Amino acid sequence: MNFNNAKFLTSCGKLSQLPAADRPEICFSGRSNVGKSTLINKLLNRKSLARVSSVPGKTATINFYELQDIYLTDLPGYGYAKVSKEEKRSWSGLISGYLSDPDRMIALIVQLVDIRHAPSKDDIDMINFLIDSELPFIIVFTKADKLSKRERAERMEAFADEIPCFEDIVSVEFSAVTFEGLEEIREIIEDALDQE
Questions:
Q1: Which of 56, 68, 151, 169 might form a disulfide with 80, Cβ 3.0–4.6 angstroms?
Q2: Domain tally for the chain?
Q3: Structural domain that includes position 116
């Protein structure tokens, strides 16, 4: 697959605005500021196709990108405290409504978790939702360059206890700085699409 030919398609703040479910979709999920937009830009060899913000909670819509005959979708970041309860409910309904839609051809969900910290309650809730919904997903641990080798090994060991069913989940350590894990994530996406 040529990851260089992507283009922004649309932003949807309501389920009624979603584009037709007529092709496989790769979704990116994670808490605010975990690096979803950064990962999408790196995957697609673009500097700013997905808008990166230093302000957490900025992506309040599902953003669709067209890549050949698939969609990449950037889900709203969850877990940001400075957002009203009303907004949080609206995002939550948008995300669960999208992921629960039986018509959508979700080939893979890339669930991002910051490698430096234990997963938040929202991360665990999301992972449990993905497991219970039997949706295909992997975990990408972002910001891997921020820890030493020893610290990373300790965090990975801790994740085995902190994340449900961890031994059964494919995980990749990723750095936007060194590009570690990037090719592996591309290969996993291509494999998921081959199975569609």
A1: 56
A2: 1
A3: 6-194
Cβ neighbours of residue 117 closer than 8 Å, sequence gap 6 or more: none
Q: Quick check: 107 and 70 in contact, CB under 8 A?
A: yes
CATH of residue 106's domain is 3.40.50.300
Residue among 133, 134, 140 nearest 187 (CA): 140
Beta strand ranges found along 89-168 (DSSP E): 105-114, 137-142
In a domain, residue 90? The reply is yes
pTM: 0.91
Note the residue count of the chain: 196
Contact yes or no for 29/112 (Cβ under 8 A): yes
pLDDT tens for the chain, 196 residues long, are 889 889 999 999 889 999 999 999 999 999 988 999 899 999 998 887 876 554 444 557 899 999 999 999 999 888 655 555 666 565 577 888 999 999 999 999 999 999 999 999 999 999 999 999 999 999 999 999 999 999 999 999 999 999 999 999 999 999 999 999 999 999 999 999 998 7
